[in-house]
Amino acid sequence: MVRPVLQVALDLTELSRAEKIAEEAVSGGADWIEIGTPLVKSEGMESVRRMRAQFPSVTLVADLKTSDTGAIEVEMAAKAGANVVCVLAAADDAVIADALRGAALYGVEIMADMMNVRDPAARAEELAALGVQIINAHVGIDQQMTGKDPLALLDALGKLPVKIAVAGGLNAETAAAAAARGADIVIVGGTIIKSADVTAAAAAIRAALDSPKSVRSEKKTLDDQIRELLQTVSAPNVTDALYRKGAMAGLNERHVPHKMIGRAVTVQTFGGDWSKPVQAIDSCNAGDILVISNDKRTDIAPWGELATRSAMNRGVAGIIIDGAVRDWDDILTLDIPVFATAVQPNAGEPKGFGEIGAEISCCGQTVRPGDWLIGDQSGVVVIPRERAYEVARRAVEVFKTETRVREEIRRGGTLGSVAQLLRWEKK
């Protein structure tokens, strides 16, 4: 078997950062360097020129995702120093043909990106017949967040008389699986470029590619996958993934012995009436989170220590109260997260007012049964149930980005310099 090429995708927006990361990636065993679409759009062809000056003998891929003016864009990239230029496989055949003519003139190869192609197998055969040299089974970042699998796309292409690349959120395990399935070029982005130790991350992928094997991972339920993803991130990561939305306000009383993750069981009560909140405990499954609205009343508590102990017996993952909680001294000794807007010794009467399982308003957020929540020392964030997997995946990407930024700060940078704030201020 021919040794698979490891292509590292520099999907960044700052060229100075990309240059350092590229150097570390090549040291770790990267064969090809991709000037990613965000970098090309941010820095233009100067990003290709600078990479060529930095790496005179490394194959450079310009991910232009060309969809029109094929030869013109190929010429720009080739003259700047690219060896491979990416076009969209979904572009018209006239664009592909023009790009190929430009590629022949300037001695570069064309990689066709299969993202969003409706019939990958048929289109791949057409592209090969047109003369495209590389077909890229690529699942885009936004598609990855919804669970689309690049290995499934790779399998759909079948056998072709051209080189096959694969890309889309690959790590050491899935990169090895791609190589075992015959991929000639394995493209890895975030797993390498967002690592604190880029050289080690690239070396780990390189080692996995050099000893490829098909991996049959244990099939997990969607809920298990969401929970596993959320375990790796923080509440701030999640609200970043939601574009600064979803955070509850006013939870001034917090007992957080550990991170809280789970689905919502909602309760609406009034005036401290603790009947429905207590009844709701028996509606919970292990791992659920009780979310209680006391109609913003903080002078009377619908929850206390005995209810908390009962919830623990059911395996409840945490309790959130838009209202007061009592028996706080005792609750602080228990190994379960409890969030409330106030502490108040007065309890209400169990009259049965309210409802279990309704959509409620809690601490400024709408919460529906089955919505996901994550809570830590920073607070609580609500994740809409229909977007839970996507948001969890996006939160992991936020976490990865922060990991790399943290490393650059550790090396002596500042957040302002790493983020290049002045450059990116809205004009």
UniProtKB/TrEMBL annotation:
Molecular function in Gene Ontology: orotidine-5'-phosphate decarboxylase activity
Top-level enzyme category: lyase
Keywords per UniProt: Lyase
Domain of life of the source: Archaea
Domain Orotidine 5'-phosphate decarboxylase: residue ranges: 5-205
EC number: 4.1.1.23
Signal peptide limits: none
Name of the featured protein: Orotidine 5'-phosphate decarboxylase
Species of provenance: Methanocorpusculum vombati
Lineage: Archaea, Methanobacteriati, Methanobacteriota, Stenosarchaea group, Methanomicrobia
